[in-house]
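Worked Example 4.2. Read the sequence first, then its structure tokens.
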Amino acid sequence: MTLQNRMNGNISLELQAILEDNGDFVIYGCDRGPKNEMGDRFEYIWEFTVKLEHVPEVLALLGGTDGDELLEIIERHWKQIEGSRLEEKIRKSGIPFRLDIDGK
């Protein structure tokens, strides 16, 4: 699901939230910066991952209960809000996560 896809001048930000086949919850982000004098665009891609065993904690944090679908809760209550605030809320909650960043 797309959480965010916006331009700020010549910089774009895309955020996607998915449940992986293994049950992990991942927020994928891609920031594309301005082009340099060679025409190359700086970008970095990051993955914010909550492992399957902690997904019920994320569901509860976002107001869901057993039987609710995490992506449906996000669609209803978080998609309208800037997507990065969702990642920030999870990070500040103490729920374990992994953050991988790849910059080019």
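Now turn to a second chain, presented in exactly the same format:
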Amino acid sequence: MKRKLRVIVDTNVVISGIISKSSYPAKIIDAWLEGKFVPVICKILQEEINEVIRRSKIRKQKLGDPKDIKRILGILFNKSEKIKIRKVELEIDIDEKDKFLFELALCSKAEVLVSGDEEILRTSFSKIILLSPKDFCARYL
């Protein structure tokens, strides 16, 4: 039996997938809900997603009923493997606020990190495959 791919989905992809129903991030959200990969998440990532979705700039988008968004996020989080991350010395040049994603990658043994953040995608980190939503969809969905 083939083991499912372990994937970290960055906040920007989750938010984009909720905002834009016909996009690569939306396809990733659908695949997450369908159990096509094992999404791994940590407390920091979950809190970041919840914080960003509440920003006024995001709420101005036509997201629908806030209760529905909360329900969708709850389902996504419940369909995720929660990992307790630990601080790891990383030899990468990345914004301090994004280092937790690479710590999560190491602690969870995830194979892929999907992000729309160009700085993350340009990072050299041999322990995980870094892909844009479009490239992830082309390669795995």
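Notes for the reader: The longest helix spans residues 66-78. The mean pLDDT is 92.
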